[in-house]
Amino acid sequence: MPLREIRGQPLARDAMAYVLAGGRGSRLMELTDNRAKPAVYFGGMSRIIDFALSNALNSGIRRIGVATQYKAHSLIRHMQRAWNFMRPERNESFDILPASQRIDEFHWYEGTADAVFQNIDIIQAHDPRYIVVLAGDHIYKMDYEIMLQQHVQSGADVTVGCLEVPRMQATGFGVMAVDEDARITAFVEKPADPPAMPGKPDVALASMGIYVFDTQFLFDQLRRDAETPGSKRDFGGDIIPYIVKHGKAVAHLFSQSAIRAAEEIEEYWRDVGTLDAYWEANIDLTDVVPKLNMYDRDWPIWTDQIVAAPAKFVHDEEGRRGMAVSSLISQDCIVSGASAYRSLLFTGVKMGSYSDVKEGVILPYCNIGRGARLNRVIVDSGVRIPEGLVVGEDPQLDARRFQRTESGICLITKTMIDRLG
């Protein structure tokens, strides 16, 4: 029986979710030139940050803060439009917390921990008993209530969300060494030889960047860290290692609280921090039985519900037939005598006659010109693809014109198209 079924009062009612959404995501290249990584579009209609926010809401958490920093305009605009339904009279709140030099006029957020420290007074005003610190740039579905219950029952000072990953694939993560009781005995950032789990020599525990604290304990740690010379003001680099040494840190396995719809065969978590990973996670959604179910009404992914016309497919002539196969087509799209295969067309995409997209992630309000052929591409929002442009058939030409990964995925932006002349 899941833990949440044996309790009467959900702990989420006494919790606040604090989402760290200030990162640039530089490995996404030009896709984050004008927006923070959490604001990047995903899955046809959503933004990446919608997953962490939806998890909080679906878990029963009704007080949420979001710390922003890098090029936050599109992120803030999205949250104002999509997440403005919280009502203070129901003891709900949604605070957007840009870096605003609140401590003094010289300091922006210096690290993830500092992004919480600088807003202690705002958190105190909501008086939560627990704080759930979340990264705003991962794709997953998770019930934080179950993690909260483990935190309370274990008497931990901090509970750290962890993924089980093949041991030698954990070299890019913060990795936990744990004992038989899931108590964390060591925390190592990006180790060359990751420590294995007890009884699982080929598996390591990687941090998800999700932490649960008692609020007052967290405040004490943040104030201590702020007075520590040489600290980078970072959870993974400073706060968590200190608690591992001087307190009680406990690991929470993602498998214990991951949300899976009936068709999903495994717990799904993705860091879409590279162009290849971002493209693959989107294209995965076109599978007949996708690894991530976006149609799960029991755990919806909330986002901005744009008022727009339905998608439209027109022309039914040989060689000029509007059609899509194994694809996600969003509202306000027009596929006019064109074809899309295993692709995602986000809101407002227009495809001209005789154009063809295969395994493409086409972001909102793009216009694909007549006769264009695009294969294995990411097209940034608002791009107008010229008539007859061919991408994905000549690797050397693609690399000169666009941002091409080693696996052959091409990112196309407005600036790149403008350079074509």
TrEMBL record:
Keywords: ATP-binding, Carbohydrate metabolism, Glycogen biosynthesis, Glycogen metabolism, Nucleotide-binding, Nucleotidyltransferase, Transferase. GO terms for biological process: glycogen biosynthetic process. InterPro entries: ADP-Glc_PPase, ADP_Glu_pyroP_CS, GlgC_bac, GlmU/GlgC-like_hexapep, NTP_transferase_dom, Nucleotide-diphossugar_trans, Trimer_LpxA-like_sf. It catalyses: alpha-D-glucose 1-phosphate + ATP + H(+) = ADP-alpha-D-glucose + diphosphate. Its EC number is 2.7.7.27. Residues 309-412 form the Glucose-1-phosphate adenylyltransferase/Bifunctional protein GlmU-like C-terminal hexapeptide domain. Transmembrane segments: none annotated. The record marks 69, 108 as: Could play a key role in the communication between the regulatory and the substrate sites. GO terms for molecular function: ATP binding; glucose-1-phosphate adenylyltransferase activity. It holds the Pfam family NTP_transferase. Pathway: Glycan biosynthesis; glycogen biosynthesis. Involved in the biosynthesis of ADP-glucose, a building block required for the elongation reactions to produce glycogen. Catalyzes the reaction between ATP and alpha-D-glucose 1-phosphate (G1P) to produce pyrophosphate and ADP-Glc. PANTHER family: GLUCOSE-1-PHOSPHATE ADENYLYLTRANSFERASE, GLUCOSE-1-PHOSPHATE ADENYLYLTRANSFERASE-RELATED. This is Glucose-1-phosphate adenylyltransferase. It comes from Sphingobium nicotianae. The gene is glgC.
